User: Fold this.
Amino acid sequence: MGAWTDGRRDDPVPCREVDIGLFEITIRDGRGRLGRLHTEHGILETPALLPVINPNIRTIEPREMWDRYGIGALITNSYIIWKHEGLKNVATSDGVHKLLDYPGVIMTDSGTFQAYVYGDVEVGVEEIVEFQRSIGVDIATMLDVFSRPDMTEEQVAKCVQETIERAPASVVAAGTTMLNGPIQGGLFKHLRTQSAQGMGEFDFAIHPIGGIVPVMERHLYKDYAKIMLASIPHLPPNRPVHMFGCGHPMLFPMSIALGADLFDSAAYALFARDGRLLTPWGTQKIATLVEWPERMPCVAHLTPVEVREMEKDDRIALLARYNLEVTLAELDRCKQAIRDGTLWRLAERRSHQHPALREAFLWLSTSPHNKKLDLQLLEELVLDDRDAAKDREANPGKWENAWDWIVNSQESPRKGGEPWGGEDTISRPHIHAAQLALKQHWRPQNRDGKGREEVLIAYGTSGPWRERLSDLMARLEHHCPGLEVMIQTPIGLLPYSLEDLNPFTHIDGPQWLWRRRPNPLKVREELKHYGMGERRVILVDLLGDGIQSRALDALFEAGVLDSVSDSDVRLQSLDKEQRDEAKLRLQRRHVADKMVLLLNLKREVVNTMLKDSTFVVNRLGRVKNALLSNGTHIVSPRLTDGGLSITNGGALEIHALRTNSLPLGFEGNEKQSSVSQGPAWVVINDDAEPFVRQGRNVFHGFILGCDSWISPGKTCLLVNRKGELIGHGLSQCTSSDMQYFRKGVAVKTRGGIE
Ligand code: GUN
Assistant:
């Protein structure tokens, strides 16, 4: 297998000087992000894999990495170059790009890993950074102090402290060269956090998570996940996160879902030397293979048997290519999953590939921070987990914050179906976000200051329920106003008023999921969240004919309809006027509940606003537009995801309701607890105001402040520094993203107000 000679790719175009070092997010899925890092050697698209190049042994030529595989960045070791006279001379005179014959982004490491393996290195802290700068690397690395997982707390604390103390001189030595500021801290959560906070203070371009190679070698993936969650939420979000020494594709989906942007891989070459193949589900030895785990382009014309018979060097080079191709393919899957909003699902699927990865995933989705599980199950899960028990004792509630950090970044509602994946489905963070929002915002109606004492729970079929239930709903609205109807879905009870809300409505799974009879204890628990824990539950099965009369029968039996004096309401249809009146009230409730849930508005305020409102409906009876009594069109329910779009008129009405002060600045903490405070405000600076007024997107760097409860996908109001409304749009990020990022779109403007 010779080197690649089939065609060259153009050299990259250097980024504008003002942009160099800046990182922007183009698309996100929770904490998973597609980004662009601006460098002198082009834009590096992330998540990215940086293959490790040993300048002495090049298993695959860097030029081939660029030309054939389109690899935008690689990593090599400056300490090896520094120590080797021949390499050092070429690098110093011609630069590292010439030395490696590679036109893309070059990152170098500093010798820390060598110090970990061999005990020490002879180079100085500033010296190695100056050297990296002098040979023209794009991203240099400071000489951090490696923290091993077997170290004591005291030893690790020293590594963290020493690394932080080396930071200022390293940053000065790097000058304008981008610099990696590694995070250490071993397996100690508070030290990882301390390291992240301490290093985040300095002007680093990227933060690698260090000290994880031995964790990965020993398959301690749960610790790996904990390290990420103890570090990443405490770093400035506008800096890419690099997982130092992580190149196994099996770890990519989970890592990216927890906020990783960069990986480096020596594994592709090291494993090839051992005759091992990387796959997204683990590692396989070629010695026993008859078929390829994945038929990658470089081996499409060969069988594993033929490859085994090749000359050693050729075989190693071919297997290294194979490993690289597999690794890049998995990275592509992750990137597409971010675009599709399915990254967590990919991580969930991959978690089944290795017991340790499954353990990590279950820890993430079901450990104490995730309160959805009943306590009994929880105890069973953590009994054998001394770590978790210790953690909880030492830091009660702390991991909850990490889970919140994931949940708060989820977009909800989203478009598309939600495939059922067993009990894991309920732990998906965007599902959790949807459940949480409902519990925080939705409440039963309270007519005349009184709630009813019953609640009707419909179960038995998947949606849409509208056609099946609309006549019944009109009659109930007429005969027993105030009676709440909830639908049982596989992910929880859904109020009928929100019957088209994703993801509740779009769970794609076997029919038995929907057929399950409601579990009385679970239902009671859920109803408590809505203040309906004491209500009598009346069940009605949606499957089969005569739903209307069965429901009315059940209500009679339960005595709910007793008070109606007429002979038998079951036999009477509503007349047109009664039906129209009931339907109008149902439409009003539908829109009001969406405004409360999705625009974070107070129920009473919405009720006042929608008094005498009217609705334009489509031929299926679904509300298209909501109009105030004066004719102003304020909102339109979205058919695709059950969401709500606001109009300029709606934005003006809602803007006028604000009682909070103008958010000039950033609270930093992302929090969701500001229930009923209205849609978040984003304060735009004077330079951007005219553009936003024309309907142009809001870019990072032009924002003076925002409310802490803003989150991706949510409607927000755009105001100038005087608090005047200049537009509205959909946020692309969290409040700390707004605080830190300097490039990229912060809000997609949906309407500008001239
Ligand atoms: N390579 C693998 N792990 C590390 C680390 O912790 N620090 C540095 N500088 N390089 C690494």
Q: What stands out?
A: The CA atoms of residues 115 and 154 lie 19 Å apart.
